[in-house]
Design brief:
The chain is of the alpha+beta class. The protein has six helices and ten strands.
Length: 272
């Protein structure tokens, strides 16, 4: 009975060491995450192997794993102050959809670290946005060129970060804010331009309607002339027939050739 505690103590110590060993030798990586392995007695950050994937992973207890979110994430930059082409201060709200390049996660950790968003992405977005917006006037920024600005910021940011192990999926310009006086002036100008376009449209429509009426009138006049000429010939022919009948019944001598006159009218020759 006295030996039992002596035997039990090593077992307890062994179990304790085993628990610590297992806890240090395993790591569970969650959904949408990946792990970068750091070999303490090796070359440090592992960059030539794939990251540790989701689920339960066994590692040496003296190594360490850095877990990264590899899903698409959003970074929002609000009230970003930039200058237009004429030096006017513009405020932008921009969202960036990004994620680390999965197979380059080790390189990202080694060269940029876990704070890569603040080290790389945010400064680059600010620099590119200032460069792109500086090419446009306030009127273009407010009205016609917002999609173009958004696309240019995306394309140029993508080029800058593509060799830095970060994947930019989209850049969204949420809002463009101008000083109130400038905004009101642009809105008045846009209203005037819209009213001018509406006036030109009404004027062109009136011209087309007038042209249509002119063509209709000319067609009707031409039809009336043709009809009038036809009626005149018929009337003359009818009068001629009546005159021929009257002459044929007169006591004077004459020669009537049926159908020899113009338009088939009888031809009357001589008389006594």
């Amino acid at each position: 009975m006295q030996k039992l505690p002596k035997i039990g103590l090593p077992i307890i110590l062994l179990a304790f060491v085993l628990i610590i060993f297992v806890s240090k030798s395993s790591i569970n990586i969650g959904y949408g995450e990946a792990g970068v392995l750091f070999r303490t007695f090796g070359k440090g950050v592992v960059t030539d192997e794939a990251p540790l994937s989701e689920g339960f992973n066994i590692i040496a207890p003296w190594n360490k794993v850095y877990v990264y979110n590899v899903k698409q994430q959003e970074f929002f930059e609000g009230n970003m102050q930039v200058l237009s082409s004429n030096g006017l201060e513009i405020s932008l709200d921009v969202s960036v959809l990004y994620q680390p390049v999965y197979n380059e996660l080790g390189l990202l950790h080694k060269t940029k670290g876990e704070n890569y968003v603040n080290i790389v992405l945010i400064p680059q977005i600010r620099a590119v946005a200032r460069s792109v917006v500086g090419r446009y006037t306030p009127e273009q920024l407010y009205s016609t060129k917002r999609d173009a600005i958004q696309n240019e910021i995306y394309e140029e940011t993508q080029k800058v970060v593509e060799n830095q192990h970060i994947q930019v999926n989209a850049v969204l310009v949420r809002d463009v804010s101008l000083p109130p006086a400038i905004k009101e002036g642009i809105e008045r100008k846009l209203i005037q331009e819209q009213e001018s376009l509406e006036y030109e449209f009404r004027l062109e429509k009136a011209k087309q309607e007038a042209e249509k009426q002119r063509i209709d009138a000319e067609g009707k006049a031409r039809a009336n002339r043709i009809l009038g000429a036809s009626i005149t010939k018929m009337i003359l022919k009818e009068k001629g027939i009546e005159a021929t009948k009257a002459l044929s019944t007169s006591p004077n001598a004459k020669v009537i050739v049926i159908g020899s006159g113009e338009d088939g009218m009888p031809l009357i020759l001589g008389g006594q």
